[in-house]
Amino acid sequence: xxxxxxxxxxLYGRLKEVIGVDNADTFFGLLPRAGFEEVxxxxxxxxxxxxxxxxxxxxxxxxxxxxxxxxxxxxxxxxxxxxxxxxxxxxxxxxxxxxxxHWCTxxxxxxxxxxxxxxxxxxxPALREEFERANQFRGTGQR
Length: 143
Fold this sequence. Notes:
Blueprint: H1 5-19, H2 21-30, H3 42-122, H4 125-139
């Protein structure tokens, strides 16, 4: 049976008359506010604990599955970016090697032309005389 608020106040008033205000306050402080059907039992707490644990386990499993999916997606993205970057670097390396090979060939050809031209110039008597004068000048120690 649940007592109404009016009945509780009447009981409190009578207790104040019989045992005094302090004792009535102490007694009512020990009673539950709205009756015993509002008080949780050990079985209630165990059910709530089991339900909360079940909820937490489900959330943990869902969160773990989400994290695993994100990890797999991130790994796939990184693998794709790594492959694309490697392909770019390989292409740039090949392009740079081709450019260097081209410029080496061009430079070698130009040097061969200049060397041939220099050899032709060395065959002229005027240039040969100039070299001989320079060698004689060097041999005398004069500068």
